[in-house]
Specification:
It contains 7 helices and 13 strands. By secondary structure, the protein is an alpha/beta fold.
Length: 216
């Protein structure tokens, strides 16, 4: 493990599960909303579950929107998990229009409730699903990300009704399939990585992603 890891505590989500998972891979995470501590970290993890608007309200209430923007500007690794990934976008359409952190241009939209065969399907997406690189990603590029595993493509645990739709498709790192539809499983822009699935709830595969993230 190289350097300090901060898990941002803004009152949203399963922060203790994320911290425990990081401890299992050898990290010593600090759970905090202290601004100087966040800015001094070598790596920052922003977890989250629930609604986009509520998450953004909490981030702003603790003045973490400006803090996270300043941290990202340092070029050090940043990981968003589930809602922590979605708030990286500019806007979300979940329960009305909400403004996000705007670190990745694009919006958060509802997952299609119709399969590619035209059948109505249940949303949310609550299941294990295989995650793989989008076709535009080269194998060499994919191999340099924390999601690449020597065993090949792996399954991860998803719980969500909305997914990210970056304006620039180059920011989509990986996808999963939901009744034939491609849904965004991970985004990446420079030092920012976001995953829609829950690595802390995805068994050995999820722990391997976190291990590669803290060792990167």
């Amino acid at each position: 493990m190289n350097g300090s890891v901060v898990v941002v505590d803004y009152g949203i989500g399963n922060v203790f599960s994320v911290c425990n998972a990081l401890k299992q891979v050898g990290a010593e995470p600090q759970l905090t909303r202290d601004i100087p501590t966040i800015l001094a970290a070598d790596r920052v993890v922003l977890p989250g579950v629930g609604a986009f608007g509520r998450a953004m309200d909490a981030i702003k209430a603790y003045h973490l929107d400006e803090t996270l923007a300043k941290y990202v500007e340092t070029g050090r690794p940043f990981l968003g998990i589930c809602i922590g990934m979605q708030v990286l976008m500019e806007t979300s359409l979940e329960f009305g229009a909400h403004k996000g952190l705007g670190m990745i241009p694009g919006k958060v939209e509802r997952i299609p409730n119709t399969s590619t065969d035209g059948e109505t399907v249940r949303v949310p997406h609550i299941s294990w699903a295989q995650v793989g690189p989008v076709p535009a990603r080269s194998q060499a590029e994919w191999a340099q990300t924390p999601l690449a595993d020597p065993a090949g493509l792996l399954d991860f645990y998803f719980v969500h009704s909305y997914h990210c739709q970056p304006s620039n498709p180059d920011y989509i790192l990986a996808e999963a399939e939901f009744h034939g539809n491609a849904i965004t499983a991970a985004v990446r822009r420079d030092n920012i990585l976001g995953v829609q699935f829950h690595p802390e709830r995805s068994g050995p595969a999820g722990l391997a992603v976190l291990q590669r993230y803290v060792a990167d």
